[in-house]
Amino acid sequence: MFQNRAEALALALPAAVFAAVVFLLPVAILLSEGFHADGAWTLSAYTGFFSEQLNRTVFIRTFKLGLEVTAVSAVIGYAAAFAIVNLPPKGKGRMIGLVTLPLMISPVARTYAWIVILGRTGIVNQAITGLGFSDEPLRLLFTETAVFIGLLQLFLPLMILSLISALENMPKDAIPAARVLGANWFQVFWKVILPLTKEGLVVGGTLVFTGSLTAYITPAVLGGSKVLMLETLLYQQVSVSNNFVSASVIAFMLIVMSFAANILLKRLATARNKR
Amino acid sequence: MSDAYLQLDKLTLAYGDTVAVKDLDLTIEKGELVALLGPSGCGKTTTMRSIAGLLTPASGRINLDGDDITRVSANKRNVGLVFQSYALFPHLTVYENVAFGLRLKGVSGQDLDKRVTAGLKSVGLSSFASRKPAELSGGQQQRVALARSMVMEPKVLLLDEPLSNLDARLRLEMRAELQRVQKETGVTMIFVTHDQVEALALADRIVVMLNGGIEQIGTPEDIYNRPVSAFVADFVGFENVFKLERGKLVTPNGPVDLPAPAPQAAGLAWRPRTVILGSGPFQGTVRGTSYAGNTREYLLDTPLGPIKAEVDAGLAAHAIGTALSFDLPLAAAASLSRFG
Amino acid sequence: MTSRLFPPIVLGLLLTFLIGPFLIIIAASLSAGDTLAFPPQGLSLKWVAKVFTIDSFRESFAMSMFLAVFGTLSALILGIPAAYALSRYKLPFGETVRTIVSLPIIVPGIIVGLALLRYLVVPFGFNITLALFFAHTALVLPYAVRVVSASLNNLRSDIEEAAVLLGSSRTGAFFRVVMPNIRGGILAAFILGFVTSFNQVPVSLFLSGPGVRTLPIDMLGYMETTYDPSIAALSSLLAFLSIGIVFLAERFLGFSRYV
């Protein structure tokens, strides 16, 4: 009954055509702008982009922060996921719910909280000046650290959930077996937990890394124009400098990174399903 | 051209580029209970689905009750199908499941209620009318599926492996149920199965299929006692099957003469029961033996290859390693007109 | 080494980090004072009340609601048939279609917004609201297809065949037999799409203008000039809205089963 290909195409085509016209086409044209100059295909836009100090800084900073957030979220993530997995069922469910909760809240709200905490009259500065560590309030906002903290809070739940899933799929006796053979906790982690939860780590890591690279709100609110990241740079290039070529270059890089991450995730998913 | 009730004429069925059934000819009389029997992949389910209209033939014709229904869509054929998974609508009650087709036909009110209640009663599920399928056992679900099809008074009722999912006791019950329904309503019934025991027990006629074609059509007795090919013989339990070449048995050790002139056939087959142990022109050694309550089975190593024999358990047992003479009496052999 | 204290400490710190900020915002929004501060100077609901009086918030809230509801609806209208085709038929270009439809998840929203602005709105004078509507539909489409596909894959196709053999047309079978059984999945897709669209910022960044602004964008703009607890109050309200929707969805639908 499901042999008729014409039927199937008719059903699927509207969605595909819509996506292609509204989405694919404009984006493709935008990207092509980055490879065109004076009617010829050229990489001059790219060389031009990277010849500017600011752009290089932003590019490196975005990557650096991405890696830092990923690394730190992995460490915290393992600790948290391990603790959660060993909870009794009720507590575990509640914890998972609490970890997932932030994901439901608008990124604007989540980022905004840090203004209250890190601002000149925010909690941290109140504590620092109140306790006498410094006479002047520290400038914590609009620093790389602020963006780092904001991104970490934004994406940590993703890493934790991913690792929880990986830990639960680990053979239950692997850790006791290693302990009985004399391994200390550090060795247990390196030789047993890490290899067995590798996939979960990569999934979580990819989500966190890509998220950090393509974040807008957090860098905008917590970094402003002092700490530009790729997306906030893109916005600035368009709205302030009308530099669409530059925007196209940035867009291309963002898409390539996002795509690469996605393909990696897909490969992992199919590899896992084959087992 | 006979005026058979259901006629498949040079039917070729394919899924994309894969041909599942090739040039099939089959006629079925009104009121018959026919089994399509064969191993998986033989094309029996594909044939059944094409009769239902779920698969359009690549070529050939299907005639039902005088009409060419080859291009008629599945919802207009008035053919019933009881799926192997029963395919009950999970969101509807048993009553609504059975009423589904009737409502589509425009039956409503008292008439609808009368027919649905009668349908449920005929399968013994009157008290389950307001339950949902998930609350029923497998056997009960099947009976709902049966009632759902039967209230439509179909011209042909198709059943996909109706007994395969049931345990031994339910299987006997369902077998009796199907026979009863068929007798009471006289509906033409075709069921698909891979189990020869089911086919032999239920069917008026069996169609043995292999690789998209028909191997043999016959009554259960025909199929059981007079298989026409090595495949059918093997399928219905002939363990000792031999090719015949120029009147000699073809064995791994070369051609072997038979004590009496062999019939004109492509092959010969013996059931284990008909092998005579203790006397005869052939020699063999007992390699294995198993006790089966009523009978004892022997596996013999012989120059003809492995021979399986079955004797009464009451007789004295032969130990492993015993040398025995045995006979393959021609009178008990099934002549195979095809060996392939 | 695993002292009994390790897990509670880790989890305690974790929750403080993840949820603490949110609690701080709620507290800050209840401040009786005039500036954004924590701890709040006195308690009052005045900022919460103020939020409802700000016109631009009301307008942008309406815009966000409009986009979320109708964008998701149109994504479903496009997505349900596509999901059906993908799960029931062996489409020759099935994988391609699935990829095209999933692209909006992979491509950062800001790029989509920019592209639409540059090639649709500016050259053709295309209505910005409409462009925004298309963008949000495209954004939600992958989620719609994915979630509905999952539901369809869990539903045996032979009940459709059974319905057809009992006399139903193909479309009739879809509405009588398939829809009732994927209702949960469709609802889950709607909720997921709604929340995604409502909280979306980057896509709407470039597709804004006078009178055309989504709530998050409006909030960002407000934050740049005014430093009072209104945004805190609004953030809290929105957070409760999101959480409330998902909570109800989980309670009455078992939402987590579908995503």
Describe the overall structure.
The complex is a heterotrimer of chains A (275), B (340) and C (259). In chain A, 78% of the residues lie in helices and 1% in strands. Chain A contains 13 helices and two strands, in the order αββαααααααααααα. Chain A has helices spanning 5-33, 44-51, 53-85, 89-104, 107-118, 123-130, 144-168, 174-180, 185-196, 198-213, 217-223, 230-239, 244-274; strands at 36-37, 40-41. In chain A, a hairpin with a 2-residue loop joins strand 1 (36-37) and strand 2. Chain B has helices at 44-52, 94-105, 109-122, 138-150, 168-185, 196-202, 220-225, 230-235, and strands at residues 6-15, 18-28, 33-37, 59-64, 67-68, 79-82, 156-160, 188-193, 205-210, 213-218, 240-245, 248-251, 254-256, 267-270, 276-291, 295-302, 305-312, 323-327, 334-336. The longest helix of chain B has 18 residues, at 168-185. Chain B is 25% helix and 35% strand. Chain B is α+β, with helices and mostly antiparallel strands and 340 residues long. Chain C has 259 residues and is an all-alpha fold. Chain C has helices at 6-29, 46-53, 55-88, 94-106, 109-124, 128-153, 158-165, 170-199, 202-206, 215-225, 230-253. In chain C, helix 5 crosses helix 6 (128-153) and helix 7 (158-165) packs antiparallel against helix 8 (170-199). The two termini of chain C are 38 Å apart. In chain C, 51% of the residues are buried. The model of chain C has no long low-confidence stretch (mean pLDDT 87).
Please summarize the sheet with the most strands of chain B. Answer: 6 strands, mixed
On the 0 to 100 scale, the average pLDDT of chain B is: 92
Rg result of chain C:
22 Å
CATH superfamily of the largest domain in chain C: MetI-like
Characterize the quaternary organization of these chains: heterotrimer
Total number of helices of chain B? 8
Domain tally of chain C = 2
Head-to-tail CA distance between termini of chain C: 38 Å
What's the CATH H-level superfamily name of the largest domain in chain B? P-loop containing nucleotide triphosphate hydrolases
Q: Which band does the percent of strand residues of chain B land in?
A: 25-35%
CATH topology of the largest domain in chain C: MetI-like fold
> What's the Cα radius of gyration of chain B?
24 Å
User: How many beta strands in the DSSP annotation of chain C?
Assistant: 0
The proportion of strand residues of chain C reads under 5%
- The global form of chain B is elongated
CATH architecture verdict of the largest domain in chain C:
Orthogonal Bundle
CATH topology title of the largest domain in chain B? Rossmann fold
Q: Return the structural class of chain C.
A: mainly alpha
